[in-house]
Write a structure and sequence with these properties.
With about 280 residues, the chain is α/β, with parallel strands linked by helices. It has helices at about 45-50, 75-80, 100-110, 115-125, 145-155, 175-190, 200-205, 225, 230-235, 245-255, 265-279; strands at about 1-10, 20-30, 35-40, 60-65, 70, 85, 160-165, 195, 210-215, 215-220. It is globular and about 65 Å long.
């Protein structure tokens, strides 16, 4: 579905000695995957995400979305219909005076039939459980509600892929949990491809695949059970893993016989309870 081939990107391509934000990225994301991109600040996470829907174009190499190159201007509209994007701060995406007008905004710009717009707006509000907010002003909502409205606006366009740039970073823990459950539900029920940038390792543990970027290059790519438990490699990139992984590693050093591949809190708790029952 999405492919990067020899992708290099520089924010100052005219300056020959300028460093590349992305260097030699080769990556294939298949339809229906749930991918988390992690890495330290400045590693190229957001830059890669923006290259996926043509907000940025490769300095060299290419990015393909369903076989269409993002480097060709005529491809950008169909590419952005395939790949919808939400950002860290939902306020940067909200422009209308009511929630339902906000969700309808993109459809109206594509000159969709009014009856179809109504149908898609109602459908997306129902999917995000925000139908009761239809006539509320978006700017008066909570952070989590605003992010749901932003997702509903993208979902109404019926994309195949959701690109999410640290969508939970401005939310409190309960808001984060609620939004993650929404995204996971959309992934399961609609087969939506999800590519999220996150600095929360707990969120990366919920995905099917984790991509670790460091200094614009891919340092690791695999299931969370592999990437998040390789503590030496994470530390070489200036990162630590989540609590479950770090605690499991400490317990193993103390002689506790825990299985490998623990990345979630419930997995650690379950393993410890199992050991206690056996003792």
């Amino acid at each position: 579905m999405l492919e990067a081939r020899g992708l290099y990107f520089s924010y100052q391509p005219e300056e020959g000695g300028a460093p590349f934000a992305l260097s030699g990225i080769n990556l294939v994301v298949r339809r229906g995957e749930y991918l988390s991109i992690i890495g330290p600040s400045g590693s190229g996470k957001t830059t890669l995400l923006k290259n996926f829907n043509g907000l940025l174009k490769p300095t060299s190499g290419e990015v393909l979305v369903n076989g269409r190159s993002t480097s060709h201007e005529t491809n950008l509209l169909p590419i952005r219909q395939v790949c919808g994007m939400i950002f860290q701060n939902p306020d940067n995406q909200l422009v209308a005076t009511t929630v339902e007008e906000e969700i309808a905004f993109g459809l109206e710009n594509y000159r969709e039939n009014p009856a179809r717009i109504r149908e898609l707006v109602d459908w997306s509000m129902e999917k995000l459980n925000i139908s009761h907010l239809a006539e509320h002003p978006p700017h008066l909502l909570s952070g989590g509600q605003k992010q749901k409205v932003a997702i509903a606006g993208v979902l109404a366009m019926r994309p195949q892929c959701l690109l999410a740039d640290e969508p939970t970073s401005m939310l409190d823990p309960s808001g984060r949990q609620e939004l993650l459950e929404v995204v996971q539900s959309l992934h399961r029920e609609l087969g939506l491809t999800v590519i999220q940038v996150t600095h929360f390792m707990e969120e990366a543990a919920l995905s099917e695949r984790v991509l670790l970027l460091h200094r614009g290059k891919i340092l690791a790519d695999g299931p969370p059970e592999e990437v998040l438990t390789d503590l030496d490699r994470l530390r070489s990139a200036g990162l630590t893993s989540n609590v479950a992984v770090e605690l499991a590693a400490l317990l193993r050093k103390d002689g506790v016989r825990l299985p490998q591949g623990i990345v979630k809190n419930q997995e650690l708790v379950g393993s410890l309870c199992s050991l206690r029952r056996k003792s």
